[in-house]
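Q: what does this look like with oxa(dethia)-CoA bound?
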Amino acid sequence: MTRAAVLAGLGAALPPHLVTNADLADVLATSDDWIRTRTGIATRYVIEPGSATSDLAVEAGQRALASADTHRVDLVVLATSTPDHPCPATAPAVAWRLGLGGVPAFDIAAVCSGFVYALAVAAGQIALGITQRALVIGADTFSTIIDPADRTTRAIFGDAAGAVVLRAGERDEPGALLGFDLGSDGEHADLITVPAGGSRERSTPHSVAAAKRYFTMQGRDVFYRAVVSMTESATSVLKQTNWSIDQVDRLVAHQANLRILHSVADQLGMDHDSVVVNLDRVGNTVAASIPLALADAVLGATLREGHRVVLSGFGGGLTWGSTALRWPDVAVAPFYPEYQEKQYGGKTK
Ligand code: UT7
């Protein structure tokens, strides 16, 4: 028997404010047709002023703990590039609000690969016997760092959180994380960046006025690198699991662009039907993207117990990462705001 980290709970959270492509076309030089054709995105959700990343992280964390039928974990890892504050990390506050005060809690900043990086760190702690049970959250609110006048990034990104509980178990159990491939390429760090606000270019009235606190992305260059890196990374994980591509039932890759997802599937030799897609409803939710797609796919019954699943992320840094598992029997609570309003008798937006 080999000790392994096993996925035991899953939850997600979206903010209440829905933004359609038509809403964006009302205020920017864009169109529903351009956004749908070039990205596959139709809607995204954004937080209201006064809310922060930790609010979504707590909500997703609560749902993941309930899904795992537990109140206790001994590690909290939060993947985010939009922490509540530049300092300190957001994870300790999230842990405290979840009633987990006292446990080790820290952030991981690997942008859209952050969730897979966080899974790898937590799984390593579990494999070493340091941790018995971990809460791993991916949460981002890119609406707080996007230039409202930038039609490209504003069309793509949405806010969300997704979370899983990992517990110590055996490698041959359903839900066991079966291998990891992680990598980075800092030579191209400038392709996805917030130029100012860190130690290199400090916040000054000038940098704020020059919009250097906003997120920037060189989309076309990132597109091709995303396809190559996620394909190579998923292939490396398949070697570790000894699975052939024909044995993979679902690819859950970072939801950046439908054309990227289909290109990765084509490179790997997978049917497009095997690719989990929810970016049409939520956009690119950065570190939340993979757990949110997992939760959506479980609720929609496109991801089922026993499926062989490959997870793959790519993002700023540049960074990438993949892992694989046989899908376990986990329950997921509904998380779309419209659904919950209906569910609890509230007003439908
Ligand atoms: O999450 C981390 C990883 N991120 C990604 O993986 C994102 C990867 N990149 C992409 O998804 C795509 O590159 C984008 C969706 C960002 C852009 O799509 P594209 O097909 O690569 O477009 P482009 O940047 O080459 O721009 C084509 C044209 C440009 O106009 P000109 O210069 O040809 O006149 C843009 O200004 O489309 C224009 N454009 C838009 N037009 C209408 C860019 N954004 C928009 C927009 N509406 N929202």
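The two ends are 51 Å apart (CA to CA). The pocket of oxa(dethia)-CoA is lined by residues 30, 34-35, 38-39, 112, 151-152, 155-156, 219-220, 222-223, 226, 256-257, 260, 284, 314-315 (CB under 6 Å).
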